């Protein structure tokens, strides 16, 4: 009996495999899950994949880049930890796309398939969109530019954010952006100032309400927080942008925007930010000598029970690999993030599938490895030079940004 059952299963599998796949039944679910979050109108991708026509006219290209696992780009080791926002194709999904392309990219029957607008989560419709007050002219100096901007929210009362996103106005030139919160309204004269301007030092003496509200870099999506939680913005808060522009040999323009999403229900817990940075490194100084491959370590003691929402590691071009985990007082190990092959050009906020409890007394360990040798093709210095901390891409950084809430019983089952 068992032998015949096995034969029957194999026969059914052969029939299924022999069937030519079509778009709506087989390919569209893969595209919706893994491609449309970026490849949609207004998304990070350079073109939309919201319709059969969009996908089929690029079918051979999609087949090629998915076979190579160049797309969808995903850097974290899923054997170490899994995430809600992971974009990673199974081998059978890659094979299915190959078969679809090879068999002529059949359309199939659209069984009331949702439109692209319906596919996109309703949370992606912002409650408030704030743009830079005026267009900024990116100079043609062929050097990196770090510029500051202040954007008033004019909020009439305190609010909680359920999510936040950054939309670059010039996708080619905006390399990354850090969003901070200022409730003093004393930084409004900062618009367009360079990080090198002496006046910046005066502004930097003003304490910020939130030194890291959100960080954007190509590859990073907007962050959305679990139900019942929210990031607080005080009445009259100004958002402070620090935008890194890539070098340009011609004058260009930018007017970037921020999307804010307000909580629709009562907030029981405030979302907080834990930023582990270069000053937290245990084996100081943070210097990476030329022709060396050093590692740096951070060990952060967690004093109270907390529940992690997400993690975002950050290094520059010399970054080689990054790993973070927590060790508990009970001797358990909680994996957070592991990236074997660091890619400066594709960095993400990695959102856990459910809240991740880190008990009081645990230590968060970070190990960041760097390659400042001639063999590192991404090294911006040829020949290599001694490198230390700095915001420029020829400098280096070592960050782990964590969104979390204070723990409450049952968090382990709370989905992000």
Give the low-confidence spans.
5-17, 115-120
The portion of residues assigned to helices is 10-25%
CATH class value of the largest domain: Mainly Beta
Mean pLDDT across every amino acid position: 88
Q: Structural class of the helices, strands and pairings?
A: alpha+beta
Total discrete domains: 3
The tally of helices reads: 7
Strand/helix succession: HHHHHHEEEEEEHEEEEEEEEEEEEEEEEE
N-C termini distance: 45 Å
- Which architecture name of the largest domain does CATH use? Sandwich
Question: What spatial form do the alpha-carbon principal axes imply?
Answer: globular
**How many strands, what sense, and barrel or not for the largest sheet?**
6 strands, mixed
Portion of residues in beta strands equals 25-35%
Rg over CA atoms, rounded to whole Å, is 23 Å
- Annotation, overall tally of beta strands: 23
Brief synopsis:
This protein has 416 residues and is α+β, with helices and mostly antiparallel strands.
Keywords:
3 domains; single chain; globular; five-stranded antiparallel β-sheet; 7 helices; Jelly Rolls; alpha+beta; six-stranded mixed β-sheet; about 425 residues; 23 strands
């Amino acid at each position: 009996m068992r032998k015949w059952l096995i034969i029957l299963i194999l026969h059914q599998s052969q029939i299924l495999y022999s069937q030519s796949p079509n778009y709506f039944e087989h390919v569209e679910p893969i595209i919706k899950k893994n491609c449309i979050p970026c490849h949609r109108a207004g998304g990070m991708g350079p073109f939309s994949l919201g319709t059969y026509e969009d996908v089929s006219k690029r079918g051979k290209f999609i087949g090629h880049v998915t076979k190579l696992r160049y797309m969808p780009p995903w850097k974290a080791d899923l054997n170490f930890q899994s995430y809600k926002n992971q974009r990673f194709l199974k081998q059978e999904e890659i094979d299915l796309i190959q078969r679809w392309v090879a068999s002529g990219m059949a359309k199939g029957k659209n069984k009331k398939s949702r439109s692209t607008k319906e596919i996109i989560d309703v949370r992606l419709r912002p409650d408030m969109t704030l743009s830079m007050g005026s267009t900024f002219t990116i100079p043609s100096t062929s050097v990196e530019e770090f510029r500051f901007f202040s954007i008033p929210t004019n909020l009439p009362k305190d609010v909680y954010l359920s999510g936040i996103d950054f939309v670059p106005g010039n996708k080619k030139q905006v390399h990354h952006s850090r969003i901070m919160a200022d409730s003093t309204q004393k930084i409004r004269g900062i618009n367009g100032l360079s990080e090198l301007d002496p006046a910046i030092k005066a502004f930097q003496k003003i304490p910020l309400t939130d030194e890291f509200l959100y960080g954007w870099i190509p590859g990073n999506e907007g962050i959305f927080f679990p139900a019942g939680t929210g990031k607080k913005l005080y009445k009259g808060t100004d958002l402070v942008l620090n935008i890194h522009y890539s070098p340009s040999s011609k004058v260009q323009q930018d007017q970037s925007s921020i999307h804010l999403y307000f909580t629709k229900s009562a907030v029981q817990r405030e979302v907080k930010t834990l930023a582990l940075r270069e000053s937290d490194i245990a084996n100081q100084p943070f210097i990476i000598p030329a022709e060396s491959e050093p590692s740096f370590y951070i060990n952060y003691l967690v004093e109270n029970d907390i529940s992690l929402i997400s993690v975002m590691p950050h290094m520059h071009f010399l970054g080689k690999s990054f790993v973070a985990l927590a060790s508990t007082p009970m001797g358990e190990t909680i994996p957070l993030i592991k990236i074997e092959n660091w890619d400066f050009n594709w960095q993400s906020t990695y959102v856990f599938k459910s809240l991740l409890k880190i008990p009081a007394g645990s230590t968060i360990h970070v190990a960041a490895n760097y390659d400042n040798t001639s063999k590192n093709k991404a090294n911006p210095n040829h020949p290599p030079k001694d490198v230390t901390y700095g915001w420029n891409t020829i400098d280096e950084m070592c960050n782990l940004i964590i969104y979390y809430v204070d723990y409450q019983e049952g968090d382990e089952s709370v989905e992000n």
